[in-house]
Design a protein that fits this description.
Layout (H helix, E strand, L loop, with lengths): L8 E5 L2 H4 L7 E5 L8 E4 L2 H22 L24 H13 L4 H11 L3 H17 L3 E9 L6 E11 L2 E2 L5 E2 L1
Antiparallel strand pairs: 1-2, 2-3, 4-5, 5-6, 5-7
Helix pairs in contact: 3-4, 3-5
Length: 180
């Protein structure tokens, strides 16, 4: 019998119009090796979806043992051995921000980064996660920031702009914005 960690985990967010009606199925977790409609977990967040998948896998393993059928094997993984240690380089401002957020959560910087990475399963989600982390930090500043995007002359793609919004009596207005 194969363990949870041997399979290739996939976690994604359902379409908004679906999870707005069924919030407990906002996120879905499944394995690449087993048909998604055969085995999946769902939840209001990634962690809940993964926990549900673990429960579903245990139930399916019990059923497969009772009915004497085998689950598909995990993908053959590289024979490369991983130590669990990496050297991570990042900008000083991100290092400081991550350290401050880890301190707020009463956890070590390493645990904070690992937990954030566990929650992220795609490059896009990783980018969004770090943007959220930076936004948490920016929310503490005396200025507010907002991301906008607009087409620039001669370009087909929208380019993200960071705008600084000045605080005015605990509110901020776009007319006071400064484009960076």
């Amino acid at each position: 019998m194969y363990s949870f960690d041997e399979y290739t985990l996939v976690v994604y967010q359902n379409a908004e119009d679906y999870w707005k009606e069924i919030p407990e199925e906002r996120y879905v977790a499944h394995f690449m090796e087993i048909a998604e409609n055969s085995l999946y977990g769902s939840g209001e967040n990634r962690d809940n979806a993964i926990d549900d998948l673990k429960v579903q896998l245990e139930a399916l393993q019990r059923e497969s043992h009772e009915r004497k059928f085998e689950l598909p094997p995990p993908r053959i993984k590289s024979s490369k051995q991983y130590s669990g240690k990496i050297l991570l380089r990042m900008p000083a401002w991100l290092h400081r921000t991550a350290d401050e957020l880890a301190t707020e959560e009463s956890t070590s910087l390493n645990s904070y980064i690992v937990n954030r990475l566990i929650r992220c399963t795609t490059i896009e989600e990783t980018y969004q996660s770090f943007c959220e982390m930076q936004q948490q930090y920016m929310d503490k500043l005396s200025y507010k920031f907002e991301w906008t995007s607009k087409k620039r002359k001669g370009q087909n793609k929208k380019i993200p702009d960071l705008r600084v919004l000045r605080l005015d009596a605990n509110s901020y207005t776009v007319k006071d914005a400064v484009n960076l």
